[in-house]
Amino acid sequence: MKNSIAIGCDDAAVELKLLLKEFLKNKGIEVVDYNIPQGSDYPDIAFQVALAIKEGKHQRGILLCGTGIGMSIVANKVPGIRAAQCYDTYSAQRARKSNNAQIITLGARVTGPELAKTIIEAWLESEFAGGGSAPKVEKIGYYERLAGRN
User: Fold this and answer.
1) Which of 31, 50, 65, 95 is flagged as catalytic?
2) Whether the predicted model's global pTM rises above the 0.90 cut
3) The organism sits in which domain of life (predicted)?
4) Which end of the chain has fewer CB atoms at under 10 Å, N or C?
């Protein structure tokens, strides 16, 4: 399942999640839905997706909530995970190319469905560029270890 994409949302983003799942499936991408029983909060879902990526079950993940902020905060609590809240195609590309973000977060209340598809597509088509960004990404890991989050 490593080439699959994990996806999860809170109650504010169910419709957007369903739309993006269909969009990805139509592109031939396997999508694994991490939504857990109703009543669970976004921190539970974000943690499960981030942990699955850290454990190598998936290469990338998509997390959706009202703004994308909460999901990003929680996913970034998992050591080794870099989650980026993106609001346009440029930020999505930079999240991958410069920061090697494995998770993208979007807000269903602030990002329309067509823009969300375009953002996801830009993120999926981008790969980590390395180069001058590699030492910076390594430094992120250094600070995680320094803070005791290894």
Assistant:
1) 65
2) yes
3) Bacteria
4) C
